[in-house]
Amino acid sequence: MKYLKIIAIPLFLLSTNAHAAGAYLASGATVTDVVNIANNGQNFAVKTEGGSSNCNAQWIIFPEANAPNANAHQRAYSTALTALTTGMKVTIYNYADSTCVRASYIHLMKQR
User: Where is the secretion signal located (predicted)?
Assistant: First the structure.
């Protein structure tokens, strides 16, 4: 049992640090552009302006590989198109790191 505790504690620390690596790429931003493929990959990309953003006026790429599954990736694309069409604000998150090329989460919200 003593050995199990020694192994479990470092594994817990590794798992909590892996989640802490992500970053908000845009918050309260407006989507200005959407493309269905970036760099000929299995992805889509958006540009945003305004709000607080680490990737303002840069392409934010959503690779399918960073989504939980293909269906979630398709829903993110639909959300981005809705944001472009309606002008609603978005929050975009990258769970992997703080770069603009591995986004996987997009939250659409009404303007306040």
Answer: 1-20
Phi, psi of 82 (to 5 degrees): -65, -45
CA 61 to chain centre: 8
Q: Are strands 60-63 and 89-94 parallel, antiparallel or unpaired?
A: unpaired
For residues 54 and 96, the answer to whether their CB atoms sit within 8 Å is: no
**Tell me, what's the pLDDT at 17?**
44
pLDDT tens sequence across 30-79: 999 999 999 899 999 999 999 998 998 899 999 999 999 999 999 999 99
Tokens of 98: 């703080």
Cα–Cα dist 3/24, whole Å = 38
Tell me the C-alpha distance between 5 and 97, whole Å: 29
Residue type present at position 11? L
75-97 as b/e: b if 16+ CB within 10 A: ebbebbeebbeeeebbbbebbbe
Give me the pLDDT at residue 71, please. Answer: 97
